[in-house]
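Researcher: Please generate the 3D structure of the following complex. Treat every line as part of one assembly.
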Amino acid sequence: MTDSPSGGLSRRRFLTSSGALGALALAGCTEQSSGSGSGSGSGTGTSAGGSTDSAGGQLSGEITLTGSSTVYPLATAIGNEFQKEHDQVDISLSPTGSGGGFSNHFCVGNSDFNNASRPITQSEQDLCSENGVEYHEINVATDALTVIVNTENDWVDCMTPDQLRQIWRADGASTWADVNADWPDEPIKRFGAADTSGTFDYFNEAILGEEANHTGNYEATEKDNLILQGVQQDQYGIGYFGFAYYQGNQSAVKALGIDNGNGCVKPSIESAKAGEYKPLSRPLFTYPRKEALAEEHIAEFARFYVEQSANADLVSEQIGFVPKTEETMQSELEALNQVISEVQ
Amino acid sequence: MATKAPTQTEFGEVSRIKGIVFKYVSFVASIVGILALGVLLAYVFWDALGLESAGTGWYLAYTGTLLVPLLAFFAYARTRPEVVAGAFELFSLTLAGVMLTVASVIILSIIASPAVWFAYFLTVVGPLLALFVYGQYEREATWVGLAMLLTLVAGPVVGTLGLGILTTLGSLLGSPGVYFLSLVIPGAALAAFLAAERFDASRRLSLGIGVALPALAVVAVPLVDTVPAISRSVWLIALVMLGLPVGYAVANTARTRERRSAFALPVIAVAGFLAGGAIVDAIGATKPSPWLDWQYLTSSPSISNAAEAGLYPAIIGSIFLIVLVSVFTFVFGVGAAIYLEEYAPDNGVLGTATRIINVNISNLAGVPSVVYGLLGLGIFVNIEAQLGPLTYGGFGVGTVFTAALTLSLLILPIVIISAQEAIRSVPSSLRQASYGMGATRWQTIRNVVLPRSLPGILTGTILALGRAIGETAPLIMIGAATTKFSPPAGLFSKLTAMPMQIYAWAFLPGEDFRYGVVAAGVVTLLIVMLTMNSVAILVRNKYQQEAN
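Model: Done. Output below.
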């Protein structure tokens, strides 16, 4: 359209003509884009750091969750659901271990929620109050800690807490025969949680108690699949981890029942829910920071978290924890709303 | 077999056995290493693409239409270096174009909004381009370099101060308008310039090219509107970022007669792919069900459902990160190397200081990445310092900016060392000749030293960037998130990177996660990295040819 036949084009002429073309094109573009309703190209055009533009009642802002790697799948699933409803809310999750999350992130004010597979300890409470961090405790689900052995282990289906204590205490049994003379005279290969993990803390407390120490003679890891592989490959292996991991790998290893005086109880969602699987069923927690709850999007997420904890499909089918009952969920929600109304 | 006791002949016989043993041991060792890696990658690709579930018909169809013609093309090209060069240029420039398009879409429209980009285009990028072009035409104007530097420093400040007004201006234009003004118009100018200078096109033809590009941008809009996956903004960005490199490669290949058969490669690839698909549909063969598909690239991560899992926030995070890291390391790394090689005194007290710095940089290259993570945590996150009236409190836990600075620290020593090596390899006779012509030290560096050493500098930088994009430990230390459901919104929002999310998936209970989803993540990471490397190889080859 600007290709004039007058030989060499002058620079000015080219500039004017291309400028005209550009203006024309631009006008076309803008008009079209405003005409075709809600701009086809600017779908994701939000400006950086827009935590204030909640004018239309839409929640926005950042939420940071740290803590237990046991609770991490549950928190991620709930976060994903929440994000689907509020796409302006930016959720970050990091599995740091219960203790790691409290001491490195939560109690120094760097995260809004800390998940934990055991209640907060005294030293962590001290650290939090030292830094002026106040928190609220929410019980979000129950886990059945599962003791596993190799599928070729044909001598044991059930153990008493006392037998477990002999195997896992420091200076305890070194061969299976030491625990029970009928069992093979082979060394026990132990695979368990590392001492930064809440699983370790809970197992320690529930099985070993105050008077005994956890043995150091075992493969310690934060990674459940390493425990699974270790037990899977060793006929004389034994290990423990959360029920969720067993639920995903039921054919790979054999789960032991626990005989706490009332006969053998196998770990399952039902037995843990009924309160029969003792002493290895454990509560799981999340700790929101009170100061953070003052922000509407965080308060809303905390409510959502509590509400979802009674969602059996999500908690037990997808993740493998015991969901809360409707009544216990309601009382958690009331307590949470109480706290939120205090800080807001 | 060749050992002999010393004989009576005067020179005796020398044993060659050590050399032969060394040669074959090295050969076998490298073959074993490469094979092991190859087998591992084959497994990963096998899982990621779900090839297990594909039927025989699918394999046969694609072998016939795609694999055999490609092999035939390689056999044909083997003896013709011009064809290989042409095919490589076509391939890598297309890859580079795709990479540039993706990176631009991510940076210009997902991370910064079009209006914000327009503000900085007006205050920084636009003036810089204008000054650069003016400097090319008016060689005498020595103030241009200084003015560019000034724009680089003052532009961002002005842009940030006037962000309110300028973004309003940008929103008035609408995002396609912004991209038309800021990308298509400069792109058209560049195309016209390249046509005239590189390909000696007639003046009219180059002007025609310059006008055709914006015209095409507008004319194709109704067509683009029919494709829901491509918005107008994406179309404009792709036209410039993908169209220009591909156009350049095509023009460059078509220019030389011997290279023209290189066009067979894209034709074979596209036609073979389409024909294979048609045959598979016709005979009803079972297709593979890949983990790595469009859904995987565009959805957010899931922990409970492997089929819904995606890597989108992590991909965006990684690319955002690597773009920032490459800017930081290139500027600081090459700057430091130039200073140390060309300016720093090498005798006297200051010379000792230079030597100490050099030794330290060499040592820093070997420091584990966790330590850099701690360093980053210390100086970019946990610090609180009072500098006169200003309080510096770090850049936030796990933010994009903190992560980019930490990773830059990690790879800076490697970049500096390789850049120093490259600068040192420029013969000093060239420098002396330049000084002899009356050039200043800066002119010598710019016109003699840098062009000769750029291939080496780029090689080192790209290798280091490849390391940075796969790093996990420093990111964990500075508190980057493992899982996020949306990409980072700006420099100071939290990010997750591909290795973090892949690592989290690797320890989930489900087999689908540990094999399928993780494998797909690894392949994505590899593809991004290899694309980056291939672009670097191309640039390096180009400069090497020019230097020879």
